[in-house]
Design a protein that fits this description.
The chain is an alpha+beta fold. The protein is built from three helices and six strands; from the N terminus they run E-H-E-E-H-E-E-E-H. The strands form three sheets. The protein has a two-stranded antiparallel sheet with strand order 1-4. Strands 2-3 form a two-stranded antiparallel sheet. Strand 2 (24-26) and strand 3 (34-36) form a beta hairpin.
């Protein structure tokens, strides 16, 4: 699901320090407001309780990591963990997986031949498809 920061953010930075994945970043606005990168947010919600204004809320446009829609929430793939967009496949761009307890990251499609894909990659492809020619490319 990821999270979003509403416009009533005061830019205090409390959320930024609570985020274990570095998904929060300051915008280039004068006020120094924050935004959340939905590709690196792992839905831990640590930032939500740190915000003194209550400005961070769930973004229903994004699937929840390891929740409904995530292939790793199935019993069949319960033995895998995800890099949550910190490591990506150089060929297809999907986030990498590995068997729990191993050190080698691999692509579920290119290396393992599975037909599953991270739902966040589907959102990324939809955003890129919707961009007009000449617009900047969306990068997680």
């Amino acid at each position: 699901m990821s999270y979003l920061v509403r416009d009533d953010c005061i830019g205090c930075g409390a959320c930024d320090y609570a985020c274990p994945t570095g998904a929060l970043r300051k915008t280039d606005s004068f006020l120094g407001l924050f935004e959340i990168d939905p590709y690196t947010c792992d839905d831990c919600a640590r930032c939500v309780s740190k915000c003194p204004m209550g400005s961070i809320e769930p973004d229903p446009a994004w699937p929840v990591c390891h929740g409904k829609g995530c292939p790793l929430s199935s019993k069949r793939l319960a033995n895998f963990e995800c890099a949550i967009w910190h490591e990506r496949c150089p060929d297809c761009g999907d986030t990498l997986w590995r068997a729990k307890g191993t050190g080698a990251w691999c692509c579920s499609r290119c290396d393992l031949g599975m037909r599953v894909v991270c739902p966040r990659l589907q959102n990324l492809r939809r955003e890129q498809r919707d961009l007009a020619p000449g617009d900047a490319t969306v990068q997680p």
